[in-house]
Amino acid sequence: MDINYKYIRGWNAQQFEAYTRCVLIFIEDYFHKKLWYQHSYALHRALDNIEKSCSDLYKLDKVESEHYSSDIYERLRIAVDFIRDFIDLINKLDEKPPYKLKRKEDDRFRNEDIYDKIANLQFEIIFNVSSVTTPSDTCWFIQPNSVWGQFFGITARNETHKIIQFKLRRLLYNEIKRFEEFTNYKSARILGFCLNVMGLEIGKSKDYGSDYYPLRKAVLVWTKKNYLSLREENPDVADACLIGTISFDEENSRLVKTYAKGLNREAPKKYLDLDSAS
Question: Which pTM value belongs to this model?
């Protein structure tokens, strides 16, 4: 499993898929032997290789068509399918690996359990797909449909999914909160992704998207309070938060999400009014 990434980088999607199947066989044996109390360098490197397989997704930015048939997109699909199968292996266990639900930020990379490893892999895939910002159709196909819907989809109802979703929500929100330490583009891309896939309305916890409602509410409250200050401090970074059909209405101090026009006379829009920077 411990293959140097410079070799994996030359694999096509079919070869990469064969590799992920081998990794899943290894993980199944790892669980069967109950080795989750031991750090596995092979597992660590394998997950790192799968994460890096999506590192060239930025090449699909501004691609108008046929992105879904590209080798780059196929490798993303395979990585997301691998995560689903990884979680399924845990679900089938009579004795599941232990976990620590809440972990301090400075303890994020120490004593990780298997659920942390999956959530971290999901986070890095989200960061990679956040580089696809336009056109809106490509962005929507890749971000909500191919990734977000798989991580927070209607099938995610068992306890293992809930544990991993909780950890992923915390990773995403903690990255956005990092803005409060220093202005940076990574936090901007994560915020932009969250706004694009979750929308600008808090809604209610029982509405569609209840699995990520706590994150949506926290992100929108943070954005409402801090976005104008961020824009005043660094307009370029603030612009990097605008992904897909999210735009900034300077005259009315609000964010705007524009939806597909369809049969409407005008394209539907939703708004998030922003608090004054002062």
Answer: 0.93
Please provide the average confidence, as pLDDT, over all residues in the chain: 90
State the CB neighbour count (10 A cutoff) for residue 161.
19
The CA-based diameter of the chain, rounded to the nearest angstrom, is 62
Residue 203, in any domain of the structure = yes
Burial tier of 82 (Cβ tally within 10 Å: 0-12, 13-18, 19+): buried
Please count the structural domains in the chain. 1
For CA atoms 171, 172, 173, 179, the dihedral sign is positive
Is 104 part of a structural domain of the chain?
Answer: yes
Please report, to the nearest 10 degrees, the dihedral formed by the alpha carbons of residues 91, 96, 97, 100 taken in order: 90
Share of the chain above pLDDT 70, in %: 95
**How far from 30 is each of 46, 90, 120, CA to CA, in Å?**
13, 11, 19
Q: Which string of DSSP letters, residue by residue, matches 226-238?
A: HHHHHHHH-HHHH
- Which structural domain, as residue segments, surrounds residue 13? 5-273
Q: Is residue 263 part of a domain?
A: yes
- 205-223 residue pLDDT tens: 777 778 899 999 999 999 9
